[in-house]
Structures are given as structure tokens and as C-alpha cells.
């Protein structure tokens, strides 16, 4: 049952949703996504909502299928965890389980929450993930900023998984913001036109250019999100 939920959660990350957040950094084995919202609530009310994820987390991105099973202890080493309820049948008595999504490393009430952990399909990969949530006083209420930094080897095409995670983090922040009353979204503001790139002399360093092409040919291709979870698709 839970294996199927894991597959569904991984697959949902690959779906295209309206982009709200932004991948602000992208490297060969790392990426950073950032999103921001302004809500009408003050910092205390926003903090209390933030540490109650069962009220706003998207159930589609849970192992149990119900966000009400999400819980967070806002203290150092506290757990952002999920209960897996027992599933009783006529033949067997169910056993309850649990999932550790992240561990709290910093909790400053009304100001900042930092947690470490790999979310969603990244949980099966040897990567480190750090989610920093900041709350700042704004003219209309409180500005909430989510920044999620991920680094390490992963069996995904990094640009693809970065975009998927970016979309999911935006969904979570949107859920929190809507529960508090949204004032504005940074994503709704038009971005300034990018400056034109200066022309480069391709013949300036032919040796360096050929070496880069050789390195690209030698690099092993990454696998897709679906391929990385392919072993879970087989019926046991």
C-alpha cells in the first residue's frame, strides 16, 4: 500500500503545475529553490500555523495520503514526521508506522525555522537538503520565505528534479499562505528584462572548447525520475 503511495508521490512531482517558486541556483549535483508570500496575519499567528503542517500541507505529497498525519516539533532535533495509521483487515491486525521527513536544526519562534532532510522522491537518494523558512514583518502583515537547498549525488536529471521540487515547494507555501490570507506573491511580479549577453569570440580558446566537448561526451547520462523509481513499479 505505502509503496504505491510513494510511487504516486514521486509521479506527482513530475507533473507540470503553474510555476510559483524559482530555481535560483542550479549545479551539476545541487540546486536551490526559493519562494515568497506576504500574508495578512502577524508573525505570531504565522508561526503557529507554520508549525501545524497538518492544517496546510498538501495530502498528495504524503505517504499516508492524509496531511492530518503530518506533525512538527519546533525544537532542535525535533521531528517533522508523518504517522502511518494501522491498516486493519478482516484477516490481520494492522501495525502503525511513521516517516521522518526532516529534522529541526533551528527554531526561533516568530522568525525562522530550519530543517534538514530530503523530501519526497529525494528521500531515497544520498543527498542533503536544508529547508529554511523565514518570517519577516511586512507593511501588510508577514512575509514568508521558503528556501530549499539540495546537494549531493542523485539518480535524476538535476534540472528536471529541481523544477519538480520547485513546484511542490510552491504548493506547500501556497497552502500555508492561503490558510492565513494571501496579500501578494513574488511570482506575480513581472521580472526585469535580462541584460543582453556580450558576444564572445568562440575562437579565443579552441583547446578549452574541445576539452569541454570531450568531457560532455564522456559524462554518463542521468536517468529520469520514473526510471529511478522503476524498481518500485514492479508488482511484488
TrEMBL record:
<feature type="signal peptide">
    <location>
        <begin position="1"/>
        <end position="21"/>
    </location>
</feature>
<protein>
    <submittedName>
        <fullName>SRPBCC family protein</fullName>
    </submittedName>
</protein>
<feature type="compositionally biased region" description="Acidic residues">
    <location>
        <begin position="193"/>
        <end position="218"/>
    </location>
</feature>
<keyword id="KW-0732">Signal</keyword>
<feature type="region of interest" description="Disordered">
    <location>
        <begin position="182"/>
        <end position="236"/>
    </location>
</feature>
<dbReference type="InterPro" id="IPR023393">
    <property type="entry name" value="START-like_dom_sf"/>
</dbReference>
Amino acid at each position: 500500500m505505502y509503496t504505491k503511495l510513494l510511487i504516486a508521490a514521486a509521479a506527482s512531482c513530475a507533473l507540470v503545475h503553474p510555476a510559483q517558486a524559482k530555481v535560483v541556483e542550479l549545479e551539476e549535483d545541487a540546486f536551490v529553490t526559493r519562494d515568497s508570500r506576504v500574508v495578512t496575519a502577524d508573525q505570531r499567528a504565522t508561526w503557529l500555523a507554520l508549525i501545524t503542517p497538518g492544517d496546510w500541507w498538501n495530502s498528495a505529497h504524503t505517504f499516508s495520503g492524509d496531511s492530518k498525519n503530518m506533525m512538527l516539533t519546533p525544537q532542535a532535533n525535533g521531528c517533522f514526521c508523518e504517522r502511518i495509521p494501522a491498516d486493519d483487515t478482516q484477516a490481520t491486525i494492522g501495525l502503525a508506522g511513521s516517516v521522518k521527513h526532516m529534522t529541526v536544526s533551528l527554531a526561533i519562534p516568530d522568525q525562522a525555522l530550519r530543517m534538514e532532510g530530503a523530501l519526497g522522491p529525494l528521500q531515497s537518494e544520498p543527498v542533503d537538503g536544508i529547508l529554511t523558512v523565514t518570517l519577516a514583518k511586512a507593511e501588510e502583515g508577514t512575509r514568508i520565505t521558503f528556501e530549499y537547498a539540495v546537494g549531493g549525488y542523485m539518480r535524476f536529471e538535476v534540472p528536471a528534479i529541481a523544477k519538480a521540487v520547485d513546484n511542490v515547494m510552491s504548493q506547500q507555501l501556497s497552502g500555508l499562505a492561503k490558510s492565513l490570507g494571501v496579500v501578494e506573491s513574488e511570482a506575480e511580479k513581472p521580472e526585469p528584462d535580462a541584460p543582453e549577453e556580450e558576444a564572445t569570440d568562440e575562437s579565443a580558446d579552441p583547446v578549452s572548447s574541445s576539452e569541454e566537448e570531450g568531457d560532455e561526451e564522456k559524462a554518463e547520462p542521468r536517468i529520469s525520475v520514473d526510471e529511478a523509481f522503476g524498481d518500485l513499479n514492479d508488482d511484488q
